[in-house]
Amino acid sequence: MKKIDTMRMKDIISQLSDVIYLLCKAKKTNITTVLDYFTNITYEEREALNLIFPDDIIGE
């Protein structure tokens, strides 16, 4: 199996998170739940990618 490089993985997860947010009006807990159920990315990998979810933005 070929590994996806970190930058491409970040792009894919970011785009998936955006789709979940835009289509479902989901926030961080919903996005992480979907990622947990439908991907094999771990919490540590999500943290390493340093993704910012809507609930993480101050002022929203």
Average pLDDT level: 75
Instruction: Give the biggest sheet.
Output: none
Give the CA-based shape. Answer: globular
Number of strands: 0
- Count helical runs: 3
Helical percentage? 55-70%
Structural class: mainly alpha
Structure description:
62% of the residues lie in helices and 0% in strands. The protein is an all-alpha fold. It is globular.
Keyphrases for this structure?
mainly alpha, 60 residues, 3 helices, 62% helix
Short structural description:
With 60 residues, the chain is an all-alpha fold.
Write the layout of secondary structure elements.
Elements: H1 6-24, H2 28-38, H3 43-49
